[in-house]
Amino acid sequence: MAWISLFVAGILEVIWAFSMKLSHGFTKPIPTVITLITMIASFALLAFSMRSLPLGTAYTIWTGIGAIGAFLVGILVLGEQLSAMRVAAAVLIVSGLVLMKLSAN
Questions:
Q1: Where, by residue number, does the polypeptide cross the bilayer (predicted)?
Q2: Domain carrying residue 55
Q3: Count of domains for the chain
Q4: I want to staple 34 with a disulfide (CB 3.0 to 4.6 A). Which of 3, 19, 66, 93 is the partner?
Q5: Between vectors from CA 50 to CA 19 and to CA 103, what angle results, nearest 5°?
Q6: Distance, CA of 61 to CA of 100 (rounded, Å)
Q7: pTM (global) more than 0.90
């Protein structure tokens, strides 16, 4: 259950990061509210998963899902630049996540 909670927390992190971008510095009410709600839910699920997962593993996986998810949303939804260097960085992040998951008990 901890891994599922952690995965959902990571997805919510992507949602709040995207909503924060859409809020234009918290000047738009609906994206601001979405940001705050998903942020709180993401932190709550992260905290729940940390009851049984090691801190380093849980936090690394959570931030990694957020980083890769935000990277993909930026490219696919916001039209951000896709370059070989950015793809290489994303591959390294995913590699780190896989290694962290494999090393967890």
A1: 33-50, 57-78, 84-104
A2: 2-103
A3: 1
A4: 19
A5: 105
A6: 7
A7: no
